[in-house]
Write the structure tokens for this entry.
Amino acid sequence: MKTAVVMSVGLLALSGCASQMVSIRTVPAQTPAADTAAALANAAAFAEAVATESAAESAAAESASGSPTAVHGGPEAAPLLTPEDAPPMYTYDPWERFNRFAYRFNARFDEAIFLPVANTYRRMPSPVRAGVHNFFGNIAEIDSVINYTLQWRLKYGLRSLERLLINSTIGIGGLIDAATKLKLPGTPTGFATTLAKWGMHPGPYLVIPLLGPSTLRDGVGFLADYGAEYGINVVGLYRGNVSWALGPVNAIDQRANIDFRYYSGGSPFEYETIRFLYVRRRLIEDVGLHAKDRPKKPAIDAPAGK
Amino acid sequence: MAPLPAKVPLYEINMTLPWRLPVPEILWFDGKLRVWLSAQDKPAPLAIVISGTGSDGNNKTISVLRAALYGAGYHVLTMPSPTFSGFIVSASSTGVAGDLMQDGHDLYAAMQEIIAHLPRKVRITDIDLLGFSLGGANAAIVKSIDASEGKLKLHRVVMINPPVSLFSSVGRLDRLFSATIGPGEMGVDLLYRRLYAQLANLYRASDRLELDENFILTAAAVTLKTDAEFSQAIALAYRLQLVDMFFIGDLYAKTGVVIDPEHRPKVGDSLEDIQRDLRAKPFADYFTRVFAPYYLKRRPEATSASLIAANRLDIIADALRSDGDYYAQTNSNDLILNRRELDWLQDTLGSRIVVYDHGGHLGEIGDRQQVADMLDMLAGRWPRSAP
């Protein structure tokens, strides 16, 4: 079994690398009718969210204009960020040379092996894929409970715990996400967020081979999450007879759920763009985590993330 | 919205073209031309769609057209713009994009290669061509080339929101950039800081845990409240595409604007400062420092003025006027056309153009009326007799 899987992955890899003039391959079909229906449903939900958020924003703006130290959303909230609070457009990337080679390696690996395998996997019936996705999501819930506790966000920790209990029982060992249907949506967290909550900066940008864009903090967080799951070793999964297949199946499930293609935009500056977006997203999430603190003024000229 | 099919099958085709120039090390990922095919399982006409300025062959706009055309019974082949990085590297015979005739010849050659290599089971009865924005002008030029070479026997062409004068259209976008964002990197920096602060404030107020795509879309709807902000978004998107084309042109033509031809950047080298430099440069700089030097060297009889004149749709005015197989759809408030250019299109195409009175550049694509008109034009049912 193990040999067969390794061999078929190898064959797929070879077929991707072959230097023929033309390659024609089937990719997942588009579903315009369903997509449009979903987009319309989303738009309605957005309209509602936008209405409430812009009301909140304008209320905040009014109170902010009243006095420079006015606060947003209650006496304990911090003042709104101003454009001067934004980090510079440069990003802290002292390991750029390594990162760029790792980025190219990842792009090639993804194109030759990872994405073709994920696309093949996407041809399996969707209930099967949903089951696999929910199963891994349920295992990760344990880590979320631990980390929400470490972050002292007990409300969310409790919700993760409820989800874990419901999905492991009613959800038949995690195959069905029953909790979401009971209005307990999943919001996974990990050790990287815990470190952020404890006040650690993202640190240098880091492209991890096989995993992709990250920062030093997120990389450490990933290792800790894996370590925790390995240590707890739920139902013997991480140290049993099938553990060798666990990582790859988890990875393929995750890849199949990410709509990203390396260099689909063809741009020579994709490395810069992804780095910029990744680190800004992390920094904004940090702002959200420290919503009750006054934003720190970034040091002038210090690149973002330092 | 026009009715859409439930499922559109998709092939991805990657091709190495025989005339490709050596691929520079830092553009290793762009060596193959990538196009997409949705095939019917019975004999059918083929509709080839050419993307707009700087875009690839599988974006949102193209997906809308693909769904409409596939639903109407066409095989659909979607291609990148000849100004798209991946096209310039894999299929351009010059590396310097933006010349209407040269790009047309490269596109035409690429189409022949692709069609020759399609799976046997794809049975094609006729070939029509569509393009939006710059792709509309490309499509018309390709048909005019085919009219003299006859290798593909292209039938009808529908141009959707085409430019008339390439350089005055991009000039308008450059002016939009300096008017709404600012002339250089300073303006981009200010825009970024404002967006960052707005997004962070919204995120903090939202009580959400993850900054995901849905949240960003919601935030964009809140942030892009005014026309001025939409204009900024359009101008920035256009400038970012110009940056890629400028970079690749400078690399191939060895014009040394931002890349020292003796010391070309390698895979491990940072390109951020080059990107910042280029973001501050308008199309006029590309024209005077890369495009004109390159083409003037190869066309001894040409002048700057003649290069500009050659990049107007009126180089094929006779064909547009007399050949009944050219059609167009545009909008009276399309920002890439001025009044005179719109009048010229209407005068030249006569009843074969439809002008919508709202929507702006590409704003009507996917609308029920636009799709119905486009399909009627492609099928030769246009102009419709009065109901």
User: Anything to note?
Assistant: The longest strand of chain A covers residues 22-30. The first helix of chain A runs from residue 2 to 17. Confidence is low (pLDDT under 50) at residues 64-75 of chain A. Chain A touches chain B through 64 residues (CB under 8 Å).
